[in-house]
Amino acid sequence: MKDTKIQWHPGFVAAMNLEFAGNRDDLIFEKEYNLNTKPLEIDLLVIKKEASVRLENEIGTFFRGHNIMEYKSPRDHLDIDAFYKAMGYACLYKSYGRTLDEREADDITLTLVRETKPEGLFQYFREHGCPISSPYKGIYHIGGKVLFPTQMVVTKELDKASHIWLRALSEELGKQDMEELVGRIRQLSGRQDKEFADSVFQVSIGANQRVMEELKGDADMNQALLELMEPELRLRDEEKIKEGLQRGLQRGLRQGLQQGIQGTVDVLSKYGHGKAEIKKIIMEQYGISADEAEGYF
């Protein structure tokens, strides 16, 4: 399956909402934040409502007031140019405040998220005097010559239990990984959490078809999958029903129109109107072609 068919970025936004579930009320999530012109969009902007709030999630301990998050799907490159592009977004975001220096530079952070470690970029940092520290598994802080506090999140290295949602955005999930994801989703009770989880789950399904086929052979897991996919299946059924009704209505209207035209032809013929005259009348009144009009004689 091609990467372009999988909606990685909506899945990422949903995953981050679940990652920060414990502090969701303390944060503002702005997905695809528009930087002045449409082509320039931040994947996810997370704003603290109160500066003093400390986030529970390890990724969030790095956050300040305004936090820019850029996500790279498994097949996206994260090289030095992509890094500077993201840093450019941060610069633009800082400069587009409503008043002078409204968004202070030291209150803005940049977080880059990718499944695997960008070794080439890390090598560049080391060669150019940018020290790298790792306070938590899979989380790297970049120091030195960076304009804003910057961290890299390597989802493949994150703790499985603590970051199941981000780790689920992968093309390399194993059977156990998918089983654990399904189990975690089934534990959710809130409607919003379930909707976010469904977005993550759809990405995982699309990116790991082979594993899904294996799980369908397990009766218990197959039942669990059907339960999780029931809303989507029900929506598809409703759409098919609506489509069927629409087609039936259109067919009925066509049949009714045909009967109406035939009745008009019969009445006009009865009262002595010629074929050419009747054809002209029904073509004008019903908007049909000459060939279609001929079929009523």
Put the structure in a nutshell.
By secondary structure, the chain is of the alpha/beta class. Helix content is about 50%, strand content about 15%.
Describe the protein's architecture and organization.
This protein is α/β, with parallel strands linked by helices and 297 residues long. The protein has 2 domains: 214 residues, tt1808, chain A (Alpha-Beta Complex); 61 residues. 50% of the residues lie in helices and 15% in strands. Strand 1 and strand 2 form a beta hairpin. The radius of gyration is 29 Å and the shape is elongated. It starts with 7 loop residues before the first helix and ends with a helix. 27% of the residues are buried.
Q: Describe the global form.
A: elongated
Identify the CATH architecture of the largest domain: Alpha-Beta Complex
Strand numbers in spatial order across the main sheet: 1-2-3-4-7-6-5
Report Rg: 29 Å
CATH topology of the largest domain: tt1808, chain A
Largest sheet: 7 strands, mixed
Number of helices: 10
Mean pLDDT metric = 84
Query: Structural class, judged by helices and strands?
Result: alpha/beta
Q: How many domains is the backbone divided into?
A: 2
What is the N-to-C succession of helices and strands?
HEEEHEHEEEHHHHHHH
| Text of the CATH class of the largest domain | Alpha Beta
Q: Quick one: how many beta strands?
A: 7
Question: Terminal Cα separation, in Å?
Answer: 55 Å
Helix-residue proportion: 40-55%
Strand fraction equals: 5-15%
Enumerate the spans where pLDDT stays under 50 for 5 or more consecutive residues. Answer: none
